[in-house]
């Protein structure tokens, strides 16, 4: 049976790859987006996850169109990189509010239906930076590290309701963001990756698909790095 799936930030990059992978498996997939246009072939819902009212409205729209959300992929996120000495408080708090508190907002709204059904899958998209740290990304790293504690707490809290909660930590992935880096910077990054290359958005999508599918039914509270070995040992 097709499940009702919601991918936040699903209009490009990793989020879009996840949406396409889950749709290819037969699920009904909706995506949220904050700006631009929604991707073709999906129910697109405009939503700023820093606004609880918009989150609630987005879920209502998805529920009316394809039923209560059975699989939530919390992917939406932002970066505002800066060295700590130069970082404004707004730059720190806005990144945490989007990446971490935004995931709290969508997860809290999703579990209503999941708890009633006594079934559900939640996947939080973190980052290798949340495990390793990264100079100039204290705000981003803090928000992504926070998802680990958040996800594992939810796994313990919701396991008795047959709801799994897992965290995927991508490494350096070929996206518009990494494409903008200089060749020298990309070469430097690859030197630190044991597999010697950047990952693809499909690498992340297939991992999420596993966690959301039958094979991931007994996996919860896990933090799965998809990073070519960059963050091993964390």
Automatic annotation (TrEMBL):
CDD domains: BKR_SDR_c. Its EC number is 1.1.1.100. This is 3-oxoacyl-[acyl-carrier protein] reductase. Belongs to the short-chain dehydrogenases/reductases (SDR) family. It holds the Pfam family adh_short_C2. Residues 3-176 form the Ketoreductase domain. Keywords: Oxidoreductase. It comes from the Bacteria. One of its GO terms (molecular function) is 3-oxoacyl-[acyl-carrier-protein] reductase (NADPH) activity. The keyword Oxidoreductase applies.
